Amino acid sequence: MYDLKKENRLCKNREFQLVYRRGKSVVNRLAVLYVLPRSPKQPSRIGFVTGKKIGCAVERNRCRRLMKEVYRLHQFELSDGFDLVLIGRSQLKHVGYAQAEHSILQLFRRARVFKKK
């Protein structure tokens, strides 16, 4: 139920590059979200990125786990038809789950990827 299946992930480098080139970005202090609209009938796909500026592998993996957990718990609130790339920034390694969740949900709201109520 909460898996991140292969059809819901961006896997190939060219998929990431397409989202970077053609997508719109939304930024805050902890993360950057790139959004590329697709057909509304297709499921949304997401990719998680942390650069080496964040720190060593342990810190990068922790940041990626934080981002994945926020997505896992809120994935059913997001509408279909988007390719998303979530990039962790260096401040993400200093915050806890609650702050990361607030920040990432704020990005999703500003990018208008939540389902309409």
From TrEMBL:
Top-level taxon of origin: Bacteria
Any one GO cellular component localisation term in the record: ribonuclease P complex
Descriptive protein name: Ribonuclease P protein component
EC number, as in UniProt: 3.1.26.5
Pfam families: Ribonuclease_P (PF00825)
Assigned keywords, A-Z: Endonuclease, Hydrolase, Nuclease, RNA-binding, tRNA processing
Molecular function per GO: 3'-tRNA processing endoribonuclease activity; ribonuclease P activity; tRNA binding
Enzyme type, top EC level: hydrolase
Record bears the keyword Manganese: no
Taxonomic placement: Bacteria, Bacillati, Bacillota, Negativicutes, Veillonellales
Organism listed in the record: Megasphaera cerevisiae DSM 20462
Catalysed transformations (reactions): Endonucleolytic cleavage of RNA, removing 5'-extranucleotides from tRNA precursor
